[in-house]
Amino acid sequence: MIALSIIGGILLFLLLLLSVRIHLLLDLDGDLRLRVRVLCFRFQIHPRKRTPRGVIRQQRKQEKKLKKKLANKQKPQKENKEISEKTAPKKKKTDILALIRLVIRILKQIARKFPSYFKLKIKRCIIKVSGKDAAESAIRYGAVRAGVYALATVADSFFTVKKTRKSVLTVDPEFLSDKSSISLSMDFYTSVRAVLALALRILFAFLRRPKKNTTPQTPDTREITDTTEKES
To answer: Does the global pTM surpass 0.70?
Structure first.
């Protein structure tokens, strides 16, 4: 009974872990703010909070970069070019084509399930378009409105777009001021289960790629190929 309870507790913990959601919060109201939220933990990505130690580290990094630039300028450019040409590996066209095919195959595998993995909740989207005069603001308003609808269709194909009752979505012309404004609040979220499923799909697509024929040609195989070519 103790072993079964331990196994049941581990399975329950794994189920709870897989159902944990990962949120990427985007706020744009004059300044851009990006935050990651997992359960009750929040991490600010942009703008980063600057501490005295962080400022000192940035200054040291900038000083090191300046020293490297000065050292590279002092060296002759011809020697650097010759060394880079010798040491630079030559990429074959076949390798590049194989990489492109692999990326396309992975994207095909992901695109089918992408809307079910990632979801987008629009909380606020208020856009006010203005111009120098009423005619210009009206023209800009039409262009911005068309662009917003195009972006909405693209987002709907990549994400499961959700709206709440408190969501505000407006695109209005502004005739009283010369400056346009935008106010955004979005929540991109997914779960640990979806991230693992996506990683497995990418892994399977990578493993299913066709293998190259690396068998060397022996004299016997060469004779067979020559005879077949002559007969044809």
So the answer is: no
